[in-house]
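Appendix B. One record, verbatim.
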Amino acid sequence: MRRAISIAFCVLILCSLLLIGIANAGNAAYSILEWGAAAPCTVDGKWTTPDEWTDAPHTVMSGNASGKFAYDIQDFTNLGLEWCIEILTDNTNNPGDYWQISFDDGNNGGAAPSSGDYMIEIDGHNTLRAFQGTGTGWAPITPAAGEITWANTIGTSMWSSTPHWIIEVVDASKTTGNIQIPNTPPTGMRVAAFDAATNTICAWAPGSTANNPDSWGLISGFSQDPIPEGFSLGAVLLVASAAALVGFLYLRKPKNTSLSAIKL
């Protein structure tokens, strides 16, 4: 019995460390999960149905402007990625407007983008460009045919009934094409939107810049199935370990002990 308790205690300590987290190069103070989507989104730059994006975690973008974004993984077969980004305070159309999504595969960080870093940028609501890090900055690259699909419109959503810009972006696969982020989390990521009319930007992680991966947020884990809001991977494993401990100790009881149902 003493040995069983020691083993279970070690498992609990290990899972508790997951709650503390692992040191990462990016800004670990801002982290989200890769979430499995119930169904792929319709890439039309709006909420095609009232619940199209409700199965994805929604994250506030901070800065001088107000925005939100949702982030999904299409499924765990082709590993396609989906974003819905909304800048809630902007409904003007200016050539200087832009959206940006940046990746640091493996979350290696750095003061400048490296060869494992990529950025998708939509300029003026009509032109998509892509970039790869060089070690000192960004160099243009061309996405493969069909690799990136996107659309943006001015509309409303569950986040605001005032018309505002909404964009949907889909990367068909994490592991094929010219923009590849094959590593499983942790992966660094930055999402930003700029309103040229007011010269304001909103970004996640707050205060981040495209040229400094150390300032980006973190994709800290992934979930294929929805889990209760607020639960991290470490928390789920901790609860599972506690359940395992209770079950193990229960099974170690003398055989003449009567059985009863246990609910956790």
